[in-house]
Amino acid sequence: MKNVFKLFIVALSVVTLASCNSSKSGSSKLTGIPFNNPKYDNYIRGDAFAGQETPLGMVPIEGGSFTMGQVQDDVMFDWNTTPKKMHIRSFFMDETEVTNSEYFLYVQYIKKVFPPAEEKYKHIYKSVLPDTLVWRKSLGNTDILSENYLRHPAYADYPVVGVSWLQANKYCKWRTDAVNLKKLIDKGYLENIFDNDSVSNFFDTDVFLADSDKLFDGDSTIYKRGIRTRGNTNSQNGNFRGRKITQADGVLSQKFRLPTEAEWEFAAKANIENREYNNIRGRKKYAWDGKYSRESKKRLRGNQLANFKQGEGSYSGLSGWSSDGADIPNKVKSYPPNAFGLYDMSGNVSEWVADVYRPIIDNEANDFNYFRGNIFTRKMIDKEGKVVIADVSEGAEVAYDTLPNGKIMPKQLPGSLKYIPITKDDVTLRRNFTVSDNTDIGDGDLNSSRFYGDDENEFSKRPSMYNSPRKPSIERDAETGEEILVNDAKKRTTLISNSTRVYKGGAWSDREYWLDPAQRRYLPEYMATNHIGFRCVTDQVGPMSFKKRKARNPSRN
Question: Which fold has domain 60-187+251-373+500-545?
Answer without folding.
Answer: paralog of FGE (formylglycine-generating enzyme) (3.90.1580)
